[in-house]
Amino acid sequence: MDKHWNNFCTMSVVHFMAFPNTIKGEGPIVETVTQIAEDPFFGGIEIGWIKDAGTRARVRSIIEQSHLKVGFGGQPTLLLQQLNLNSLDEAARKKAVAQMKANVDEAVELGAKRVAFLSGKDPGDKDRPAALDALVKSMLEICGYASDKGIALTCETFDRDVDKACLIGPSDYAAEFSRIVRRDYPDFGLMYDLSHMPLLREQAEPALTLLRDELVHIHVGNCVTTPGAPGYGDLHPRFGWPGGANDVAELTEFIRALFKVGYLAEGKQERPWVGFEVKPQTEEETPELIIANAKRTWQEAWSRV
C-alpha cells in the first residue's frame, strides 16, 4: 500500500495488555499511559479500569494534552471478577450488568466514546438459547444506560472452546447477536481480533464478510493453537512467537480482507480503529520490545498490501 495507514484507520494499543502490571486497575498507569501518549505512531489508546479517581483524572489530562483518542476496555473487569453477562443465575447476571454500568461511568470520566466487553461462558448447546436471551437482556439495559451518557457498546468475539470459551463466539453467531441488539441501539457493534481468529478456526475474508455490517473495531495480534505449547491459548504473544499462528504473512492477508469488506476505506468520516493487542510472555520480554515488534510487523505487512 503506497498510502499511509493514517488515511484509513486510527492505530491504537491495548494499554493493559502491553503493560500487564496495570490490568487490575492499579500500578504504574500514569507512567505507562504517558509512554504511549508520547509515541506519535498511535492515534488512540485502549484503557481498562483505573480504581483511583485521582489517577483517572491524571490519565484524562495526559490524553487531552497528547491529542489521543481513547477507548475503554471492560474485559478485565469481567474476567478478573468472573462476571458473566449471560449467566442464567439472575443475581450473577445483574452483578455483571452493574459492573458494566460502572465501566460506562469510568469511560465518561476518561473521555471515551465506546466501552468494549466480552460475553460470558458458553453453557453448551442445550442452554445456549437461554444464555443468548440473557445476554440480549443485559445489553439492552446497559446500552440504555450508556446511550444517555453518550457511550456505545462494543462486543469483542472470543473463542468458544479453547481458552475463554465464550458464548460470543463464532462469527455467524456473533453477527446474529449484534443484529438483535442493533434493532434498538444502532451504534452497538462487534470487535474482531486476528489473535482470536485461529482459535475460532476461521479465515479472514469469510469471517470478516459475515461481520462486515457489524464491525466497529479491530484488534491484531498473535496466538498459539497447539495444546501444551508455550503460549497456548488466548495469551496474545508477540508476532513471530515460536509456534504462533500469526506473523507478517497472516497480518498482510488480514489487512487485505479488511479492505475487501470495506472496513478500511479512504474518505470515511470517522476513521475506524485498529488496535495492537500484544503482551510480554517472559521476564526477558518488555512492553517496549513487544510494542516495537507489533509496529514493525504492521509496517512490513502494510507495505505488502
Residue windows where pLDDT falls under 50 for at least 5 positions: none
End-to-end separation: 5 Å
Secondary-structure element string: EHHEHEHHEHEHEHEHEH
SS-derived structural category: alpha/beta
Main sheet overview: 8 strands, parallel, barrel
Report the mean per-residue pLDDT as an integer: 97
Rounded radius of gyration (Å): 18 Å
Folded structure, characterized:
The structure is a single chain. The chain has 305 residues and is an alpha/beta fold. Helix content is 41%, strand content 12%. It is built from 10 helices and 8 strands. Strands 1-2-3-4-5-6-7-8 form an 8-stranded parallel barrel, surrounded by 4 helices.
Protein topology:
Blueprint: E1 10-14, H1 15-18, H2 29-37, E2 44-47, H3 53-66, E3 69-73, H4 75-79, H5 90-110, E4 114-117, H6 128-147, E5 152-156, H7 171-182, E6 189-193, H8 204-211, E7 215-220, H9 248-260, E8 273-276, H10 287-304
Parallel strand pairs: 1-2, 1-8, 2-3, 3-4, 4-5, 5-6, 6-7, 7-8
Helix pairs in contact: 2-3, 5-6, 7-8, 8-9, 9-10
Which keywords apply here?
305 residues; alpha/beta; 8-stranded parallel barrel; 10 helices; globular
Quick synopsis:
With 305 residues, this protein is α/β, with parallel strands linked by helices. It is built from 10 helices and 8 strands.
